[in-house]
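Re: beginner question about structure tokens

> Can someone show what the tokenized structure looks like for a real chain? I only ever see the sequence side.

Sure, here's an example I had lying around. Input first:
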Amino acid sequence: MEHRVYLGIDLDDQYAVISSYELNKKEPETFSAIAGSEIYQIPALITKKKGIGQWFVGEEAVRLAIAQGEEANGRLLSRAVGGEKVFVDGETYPAEELLTLYLKKLIRLACGPDRRWEPDRLVICMEKLSREATELFLSMAPKLGIDREKLQLLDRKE
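And the corresponding structure tokens:
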């Protein structure tokens, strides 16, 4: 029997939900960023630990931002689609770079820290798919370690 794994990310400016589906299983698996939890919505936030090149996403980003007396960086999707720059820890980053870091951490959550497996397809679902979003994700695919041919973009109506 053929073994195929699809990875799906439902993404908006507030949250992401990441799931995988294997053709040989009955149900998809949805991942929580909190071990043992059934909280599947991962806040679409990223924070950098001050003075160190270490990035945190989701609830960890919220906790770190509070500890550092700042706000976590959000609205990653719309900021990246809009080509915005984000000021973090004294440096300016393209929002696309921060969204890429966020998505890499989600993919690592599903595939394991050593990427035990590679998805046969990465499906990203958004509220509304635009030409700008399509171009953004196609340019991000190689940075995510995904062949462009394995990337599929959908809006929630589909």
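Each token stands for a local structural state, so reading them left to right follows the chain. The beta strands are 5-11, 15-22, 29-31, 42-43, 46-48, 55-57, 85-88, 91-94, 121-126, 151-155.
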